[in-house]
Amino acid sequence: MIQASFLIAEHWKLLLELNGTVTPFTEKLREQLKQELEEEHQNEIEELRRDYDQRMQQQEQEWLTQTRIKIRERLVEMSRRHNAAIEKTEGLQA
Questions:
Q1: Burial (CB count within 10 angstroms: exposed 0-12, middle 13-18, buried 19+), residue 8
Q2: Digits of tens for pLDDT over the chain (94 positions)?
Q3: What pTM was estimated for this model as a whole?
């Protein structure tokens, strides 16, 4: 009975191999394809990360440029107001 079950298991394995369901070749191929897909996925993730970092740097540069412009404009306006106030004061003293 035990020998018959081993024989049946061997025949079943042979039938699966003949069918192409289970073979060392398909296992190797499956593992190779899995590894290739993982590598492609990892490369896509890295590319997206680089793109994201580049966009963030661009946005930061744009923000800094706009902030500098606003600060410069406000400083110029404050300087004009200060100069105008000094001129008024000098005009009143004269």
A1: exposed
A2: 888 888 888 888 888 777 766 667 777 888 999 999 999 999 999 999 999 999 999 999 999 999 999 999 999 999 999 998 888 887 777 5
A3: 0.54
